[in-house]
Amino acid sequence: MTTKNAPPVAVINQEFARKVFGSVTSATGRYFKQPDGTRTQVVGIVEDGKYDRVTEDPQPAMFLPILQSPSTQTYLAVRSDRDPGQLAAAVRSSVRALDAGLPLYIGPWNQEVPSAAC
Questions:
Q1: Which residue of 10, 44, 58, 64 is most buried, as measured by CB atoms within 10 A?
Q2: Rounded CA gap, 21 and 24, in Å?
Q3: pTM of the model
Q4: DSSP string, 77-109
Q5: Which residues of 42-78 are buried (b: 16+ CB within 10 A; e: fewer)?
Q6: What pLDDT shows up at residue 20?
Q7: DSSP 8-state code for residue 55
C-alpha cells in the first residue's frame, strides 16, 4: 500500500515512457524527476488516453497515488457497454461504500469533454 511517507511512485502512460525513457519496455522500475525535483519511480505503464480532446495527439501523462499527491479534485473515467443509468447507480454505490461523505458528480463523457462527441 502506498502511503504519504512511502517512496514516491507513479504510473505513466506509453507516451511518457517513450519521451522520457526512449522505450515503453524499459521504463518500469526506472526513476524520473517531477517538476518540483522529487525523484519518482515508475511502477506501472498504461495505454495512452485522451485527456482533453478526442482528436488530440498522444500526450505524456503520469498518475500519482492520491495519498502522495493530495488534490481537491479527482476524476474517474469508466467505459462500459452497460446502460448509463445502471452504470451511474453502480459507480455511485461503490463510491458511497468507500466514503459516504465524498462529493460526487456523474456525467457522460460526451457532455464533460467538449469535443468528445467527435
A1: 10
A2: 7
A3: 0.66
A4: ----SS-HHHHHHHHHHHHHHH-TTS------H
A5: beebeebeeeeeeeeebeebeebbeebeeeeeeeeee
A6: 96
A7: T
Nine-digit cell string for 1: 500500500
Q: Which three cell numbers stand for residue 66?
A: 492520491
Smallest CA-to-CA distance from 24 within 33, 16, 34 is with 16
Q: Which residue has the cell 515512457?
A: 17
> How far apart are the C-alpha atoms of 105 and 84, rounded to whole Å?
14
* Rounded mean pLDDT, 85-91: 91
Calculate the average pLDDT of the chain. 86
Per-residue model confidence (pLDDT) at position 118: 45
Q: Which of 18-32, 39-53, 78-92 has the highest mean pLDDT?
A: 18-32
Q: Which three cell numbers mark 46?
A: 498504461
SS3 call for 4: coil
Grid coordinates representing 98 are: 468507500
